């Protein structure tokens, strides 16, 4: 994904389910010289608007995390990135887990909704140049928020992750723990859901291995040992 070409007017889209926020951002962006190509209340409507444009993208999408349509943060960020547009997250300060998830999904940066509009415009400019926004404040908040440092796994979930990430097929995990294969699958689904909740998605077995090592459930591995356990 490349940034805006030097000398060209950067294109911006806004996704927020509060009309007043959209109108305020649109006015500020236009005053700053940006071409606001879409403003929508949800990501599917944005995608339709971008698809109707030549090139099917814009330079920066300013995306609210707290959309009221039940959509997931990861899904929204990845859907926008798939168009070739960069994502700048616009979030309230208490959404630490969602911010972590957005950054893990590939967002270029986060700007708090409490920031002055001048800071929001400056953040858009940074992302429009194809640069990642320095998230010093958010990084500090996430680091300090120990409740989100690890997925809060139950004892049985811990056992399932330990065995599965160690390399056992799920059927053998179930046999070793004396539970049904379907029950082991439910535990695994819960584990993945909990890692998504804290912004550390683990869609593959290798990802789960990494999470288990990061959280001290398994010892660290040397070299490329993790990939050998697919």
Structure description:
There is one protein chain. The chain is α/β, with parallel strands linked by helices. The chain has ten helices and five strands, in the order E-H-E-H-E-H-E-H-E-H-H-H-H-H-H. Strands 2-1-3-4-5 form a five-stranded parallel β-sheet, sandwiched between helices. Helix 1 links the parallel strand 1 and strand 2. Helix 8 packs across helix 9 (181-197).
Strand order of the largest sheet: 2-1-3-4-5
List how many beta strands DSSP finds.
5
Which radius of gyration do the C-alpha atoms yield? Answer: 20 Å
Strand content: 5-15%
Assign the structural class, choosing from mainly alpha, mainly beta, alpha/beta, alpha+beta, or little secondary structure: alpha/beta
**N-C termini distance:** 30 Å
pLDDT < 50 stretches = 221-230
General form: elongated
Succession of helices and strands: EHEHEHEHEHHHHHH
Note the total helix count. Answer: 10
- For this entry, what is the oligomeric state of its chains? single chain
Question: What is the mean pLDDT?
Answer: 83
Q: Report the major sheet.
A: 5 strands, parallel
**Which bin fits the share of residues in helices?**
40-55%
Pfam family, one: GerE
Keywords: DNA-binding, Phosphoprotein
Domain Response regulatory: 11-128
Modified residues (4-aspartylphosphate): 64
Task: Give structural attributes.
230 residues, alpha/beta, 5-stranded parallel β-sheet, 10 helices, elongated, Response regulator transcription factor, Sig_transdc_resp-reg_C-effctor
């Amino acid at each position: 994904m490349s940034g805006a070409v030097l000398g060209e007017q950067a294109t911006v889209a806004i996704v927020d389910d509060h009309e007043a926020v959209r109108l305020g951002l649109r006015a500020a962006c236009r005053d700053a010289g940006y071409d606001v190509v879409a403003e929508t209340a949800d990501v599917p409507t944005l995608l339709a608007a971008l698809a109707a444009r030549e090139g099917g993208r814009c330079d920066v999408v300013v995306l609210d995390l707290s959309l009221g349509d039940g959509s997931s943060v990861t899904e929204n960020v990845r859907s926008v990135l798939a168009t070739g547009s960069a994502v700048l997250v616009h979030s309230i300060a208490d959404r630490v887990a969602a911010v972590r998830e957005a950054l893990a999904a590939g967002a270029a940066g986060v700007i708090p909704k409490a920031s002055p509009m001048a800071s929001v415009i400056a953040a858009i400019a940074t992302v429009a140049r194809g640069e990642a926004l320095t998230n010093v404040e958010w990084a500090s908040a996430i680091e300090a928020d120990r409740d989100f440092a690890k997925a809060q796994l139950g004892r049985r979930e811990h056992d399932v992750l330990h065995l599965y990430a160690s390399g056992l097929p799920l059927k053998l995990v179930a046999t070793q723990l004396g539970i049904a294969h379907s029950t082991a699958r439910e535990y695994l689904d819960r584990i993945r859901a909990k890692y998504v909740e804290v912004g550390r998605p683990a869609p593959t077995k290798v990802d789960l291995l990494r999470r288990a090592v990061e959280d001290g459930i398994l010892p660290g591995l040397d070299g490329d040992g993790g990939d050998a356990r697919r």
